């Protein structure tokens, strides 16, 4: 088994499909409900299959912080309205193969958007680095 | 939960309280109680003794003395002097309160106080508390043991303030239900214990507030887990028994004539609970209570909520003027403005602000709800 992080972006990544450009607050209310229900369905399916690790949504605005030197408070910057890349949330899964991880990402990406059409959002799939196996030979 | 487990959950913290009251330090007292509970599981079988509490106190105290003596022998230290049990009957009630006040001591950070209260006073396992907070069990174990060390290091033997106890209990209530354990129910149980032993009207005020909110809980969530706001809730699903109890407790508290923040909040909750719809709510009284609350505890959050009530009494434009006085950084600021603009008939501005509010939401349920409100107005605006 290997763990993968599936990242959903508000912005960034390859060009979006046209249906992904309409903000959710401009969908029909039922479309919003259907989309959320689908996301819950994906998580439930993964739980049933024993592949689910974690899922979290992130607030769109955050702050950049760095060390400010001894005795000084942290230095902060932002929040930035127009960052190139913005992560909306993630799902962590534990699956048998990279193929299965891609399958799950595609499943997430098939979430319905306006008109019930699959949104086809890009999902970034990042393998977790593993710990060194006891037996390497 | 089996009867035995339920009994142990109830009795464990009271036994711990007795040991602490008798002078045992927090950490070793807890070890002793755990050992006693384990022995109870092994030896009580299906039938607990006639006086399980006394049995547990005796056993835990013996375990504690054993541990202290073996430790003392190792360290060649004489400790027997202060280990004699205090005379008098053993009830556990006062001791539980002492524990509660220690666990909520202002010297502890809030998250430590919450964890320690659930562990030591609520009798929950570390695993249950960890799950309820969605953190690893080892993290929660560490948080609890650091809290105990703080108590030991600071030599805390005197209870902290009632104010901090109430705040911790209210926080626990608001953590609600995420794991197998219902923290809201747990907070109510602990507040009931405190209220039974205290004549402070604010304790009753907090209990009333929790009960009145709890009465509405099942109506707060829709069939697929979505948030249902107060004005759209199916009020026939409110728990009328809890409402009646909350109102009664509140009235008794108010009659003691020492008003406080929790009583005022409970009074507002009672006015909502008393109305068959938003339209039939006595908003004038709600507004008066918000004025009272602002006097008792001035805060921008209260000022924002007051603006909603003012919007109902004097109209949405008056509400918007009041919101303009509240700093924009206050949570739900955009959501309240959106609501007032919608009531004022400015749907375009309301739609825009609901979308802004959804991006500022602190929870996924609130974000989804605000997104739906924006979507609903967007659909209405597009209709010819």
UniProtKB/TrEMBL annotation, chain A:
Domain YCII-related: 42-106
Any matching Pfam family: YCII
Coiled-coil annotated spans: none
InterPro entries: Dimeric_a/b-barrel, YCII
Domain of life: Bacteria
Gene3D superfamilies: Dimeric alpha+beta barrel (3.30.70.1060)
Signal peptide positions (record): none
PANTHER family, sorted: BLL7171 PROTEIN, BLL7171 PROTEIN-RELATED
Similarity annotation: Belongs to the YciI family.
Protein name: DGPFAETKE family protein
Organism encoding this protein: Knoellia aerolata DSM 18566
Lineage: Bacteria, Bacillati, Actinomycetota, Actinomycetes, Micrococcales
TrEMBL record, chain B:
Keywords assigned by UniProt, alphabetized: Sigma factor, Transcription, Transcription regulation
GO molecular function, a single term: DNA binding
Keyword Transcription regulation: yes
Residue ranges of domain RNA polymerase sigma-70 region in the record: 10-71
GO BP term, example: DNA-templated transcription initiation
SUPFAM superfamilies to which the protein is assigned, alphabetical: Sigma2 domain of RNA polymerase sigma factors, Sigma3 and sigma4 domains of RNA polymerase sigma factors
Keyword Transcription attributed: yes
Residue stretches making up the RNA polymerase sigma factor 70 region 4 type domain: 100-150
Domain (DUF6596): residue spans on this chain: 162-253
Family to which this protein belongs: Belongs to the sigma-70 factor family. ECF subfamily.
PANTHER family, A to Z: BLL6612 PROTEIN, BLL6612 PROTEIN-RELATED
Protein name, per record: RNA polymerase sigma24 factor
Organism: Knoellia aerolata DSM 18566
